[in-house]
């Protein structure tokens, strides 16, 4: 019986920690994107814009801080950008529809808008309230709502759960 409760708690924690894309404030995507940085460069031929040094991105409740953010738009008609953020670390936060914040950090964050696939690399962490997942690499498929956390020989994946917080709605 305890195993079933623990499994349910782990599944719920994973769902809560990674539901930021599915249950993020729906109004966020309708808000303007504001980007400030100390420097910006644009390569029209390659369709690449780079923001560097003290980059701050906001959109609704979303806040991202990074050292450098590069946005690449493919030359074909798909129009789906790829975003790479670098930092020491890159940090982000967003408010969920239920009012709870989700926070994350990693040395590098890649997001492919076309496939809706997010990869956090280098001391990656996702946190909601006091529950968190720490790993070298955390991947999240937004469409399928599947997360994988793994370490490549650098220790173990660490998950901290607070059952009282998991049961709150």
TrEMBL record:
Keywords, comma-separated and alphabetical: Periplasm, Signal, Transport
GO BP terms in the entry: Gram-negative-bacterium-type cell outer membrane assembly; lipopolysaccharide transport
Leader sequence segment: 1-24
Assembly and oligomerization: Component of the lipopolysaccharide transport and assembly complex.
Subcellular location: Periplasm
Coiled-coil region list: none
Family assignment from sequence similarity: Belongs to the LptA family.
Cellular component annotations (GO), alphabetically ordered: cell outer membrane; outer membrane-bounded periplasmic space
Molecular function per GO: glycolipid transfer activity; lipopolysaccharide binding
Domain Organic solvent tolerance-like N-terminal: 34-146
Protein origin, superkingdom: Bacteria
Role summary: Involved in the assembly of lipopolysaccharide (LPS). Required for the translocation of LPS from the inner membrane to the outer membrane. May form a bridge between the inner membrane and the outer membrane, via interactions with LptC and LptD, thereby facilitating LPS transfer across the periplasm.
Stated name of the protein: Lipopolysaccharide export system protein LptA
NCBIfam families: outer_YhbN_LptA
């Amino acid at each position: 019986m305890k195993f079933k409760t623990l499994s349910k708690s782990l599944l719920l924690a994973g769902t809560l920690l990674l539901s930021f894309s599915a249950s993020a404030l729906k109004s966020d995507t309708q808000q303007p994107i504001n980007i400030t940085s100390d420097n910006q460069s644009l390569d029209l031929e390659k369709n690449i814009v780079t923001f560097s040094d003290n980059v701050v991105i906001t959109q609704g409740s979303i806040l991202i801080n990074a050292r450098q953010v590069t946005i690449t738009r493919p030359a074909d008609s798909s129009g789906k950008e790829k975003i790479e953020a670098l930092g020491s670390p890159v940090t982000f936060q967003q408010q969920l529809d239920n009012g709870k914040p989700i926070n994350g950090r990693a040395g590098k964050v890649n997001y492919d808008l076309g496939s809706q696939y997010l990869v956090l690399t280098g001391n990656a962490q996702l946190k909601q309230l006091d529950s968190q997942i720490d790993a070298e690499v955390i991947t999240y498929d937004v469409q399928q709502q599947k997360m994988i956390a793994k370490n490549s020989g650098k220790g173990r994946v660490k998950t901290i759960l607070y059952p009282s917080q998991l049961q709150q709605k």
